[in-house]
4-deoxy-L-threo-5-hexosulose-uronate ketol-isomerase
Amino acid sequence: MTQFSKRHACSPDEMRGMTTQSLREHFLIETLFLPDACCWTLSFYDRYLTGGAMPTSQPLPLDNPADLRASYFLERRELGIINVGGAGQVIADGVTYPMAYKEALYLGRGTQSVVFQSDDAATPARFYLNSTPAHATYPNRLVTRADAEVVELGSPATANHRTINKLLVNSVLPTCQLQMGMTELKSGSVWNTMPAHTHDRRMEVYFYFEVPEGQAVCHFMGEPQETRPIWMQNQQAVISPYWSIHAGAGTSNYTFIWGMAGENLDYGDMDFCAITDLR
């Protein structure tokens, strides 16, 4: 089963007049995982697809939504996968890639058959999916935690002590425009992506998980001088346009996956905003 929805792009001027509900309807992706289903949300910012696949009792094929107007899903796209559930495997064109918790897989343009499986239906794998248009074909590759480029930033004093795991980035493997990684906040730290920044060269999607039961994350978006909050629960995602900051603070520490697409693969290409200039 496949669920497919669309989110149109909007300008900063439109966002200024949005109610809380309207903001959530435009940018928040509340449901990513349903049993034996692929759930997709297409954003018209860079035609970015955000999704989730949760196979339980049987293998779950990656269907080809009619909206893509393609012969198969990856005919003109690339796909990044990070497992945020139980152990599982992805079978791509007959090659099996076992995926443990927090491991990533890159599938390049031209991969025709993709099937998701869980090792145990009682603790199913949850494959978090990001897909972007691709202009070239690069090899499929599994990226484990050991393969990641790891950077530690922040400090307990500023409540943003965190570990950044660069998984599907050009310093680890070649991609067309998709980049994905995972940031883990240390116990006692709650702030992510501070100082805040924007980047006109690409858009971004944040997926929050490992949010403890009964806790939440307040995600901040909008232009640096015109910010808005979106309260988010565990295993929800939020779309961040190129003109928007993307930062958050939780009522506990948590982990989030960042995915990006655009014209520039330079991870450090950011336009920073001083914390004291935020409004």
Remarks:
- The longest helix spans residues 20-27.
- The longest strand covers residues 202-209.
- The mean pLDDT is 96.
- The radius of gyration is 18 Å.
